[in-house]
């Protein structure tokens, strides 16, 4: 239960995303991959609160389990913005972590984006959305998409973003409890890397796939088991490089019904797919 102190805080949303599909078109000389993906914003995620100070220090109110503060993407994002905008101010950041880490739902990238967007307003550093997205790219391939906050098609290595309104569906997101390293998936010899490009206007879910799914399911039987279980109920797929898996429903009640049936070994949540992220809505309130 939140304590009195946390109730007083001004919490900023840090939503999750799903890669509804993820095609790998090729590999560049620098090792990065050319992708095509539909990034679906969800109305569910972490929350961050920012207590501004005058001492120029950037600190976490408490350490995120397993992540040293200097490695935390939140701290890295705040430091990057302070340096770029030459801000003399500091901040103490509180994090309410709900999203599983390393699950392919973008928690760390989203935390970094929320930090950039919120501190740009609270520190009054006045960077444009384009400048924040460029800064974000230095922290991770998915940070710009969270800065922009729109459900979108992405091309290039992920930086080429085209907002694309989708029908708002409900998703059951389930975590098989295994950790998948994004870098290892992209280094795998057997990863398919030759999917032909599609035209965004021709996008149909059934004609797409996640090119990482087979490889990850082969290495992690729990992922395969969870997918098999979900497929009994609804169209289901892995997101990003895993390990989370999602199932698509047209209404909330059906998604919650299947969540209630989810075996205890797996954790899950139900979220609405939204075209504009909760971060974007929060930002609008500051205008
Ligand atoms: C593939 C996605 O999971 C889709 O959401 C993301 O784009 C990956 O985002 P991320 O985890 O923030 O990725 P980064 O931290 O930038 O890169 C992690 C590693 O993934 C590989 N990587 C990432 C993006 C990309 N287009 N090609 C790659 O080969 C690189 O080996 C890199 O070392
Ligand atoms: N604030 C943060 N929240 C979550 N992870 C963080 C954070 N800062 C650093 N990390 C590190 O980043 C790693 C990846 O976390 P994240 O939750 O972003 O993975 P992901 O959901 O697989 O992301 P993606 O979909 O972008 O591949 C974690 O294992 C953790 O070590």
Automatic annotation (TrEMBL):
Record-linked InterPro entries: GHMP_kinase_C_dom, GHMP_kinase_C_sf, GHMP_kinase_N_dom, IspE, Ribosomal_Su5_D2-typ_SF, Ribsml_uS5_D2-typ_fold_subgr
Catalytic activity: 4-CDP-2-C-methyl-D-erythritol + ATP = 4-CDP-2-C-methyl-D-erythritol 2-phosphate + ADP + H(+)
Active-site residues, Swiss-Prot/TrEMBL: 17, 142
Enzyme Commission designation: 2.7.1.148
UniProt binding sites for ATP: 100-110
GO biological process: isopentenyl diphosphate biosynthetic process, methylerythritol 4-phosphate pathway; terpenoid biosynthetic process
Superkingdom of origin: Bacteria
Pfam families in UniProt: GHMP_kinases_C, GHMP_kinases_N
Pathway terms, separated by semicolons: Isoprenoid biosynthesis; isopentenyl diphosphate biosynthesis via DXP pathway; isopentenyl diphosphate from 1-deoxy-D-xylulose 5-phosphate: step 3/6
Keyword rRNA-binding: no
Key words, A-Z: ATP-binding, Isoprene biosynthesis, Kinase, Nucleotide-binding, Transferase
Annotated GHMP kinase N-terminal domain residues: 72-149
Domain GHMP kinase C-terminal span(s) in chain numbering: 201-262
Top-level class of the enzyme under EC nomenclature: transferase
Record's function text: Catalyzes the phosphorylation of the position 2 hydroxy group of 4-diphosphocytidyl-2C-methyl-D-erythritol.
Family: Belongs to the GHMP kinase family. IspE subfamily.
Annotated protein name in UniProt: 4-diphosphocytidyl-2-C-methyl-D-erythritol kinase
Organism: Alteromonas hispanica
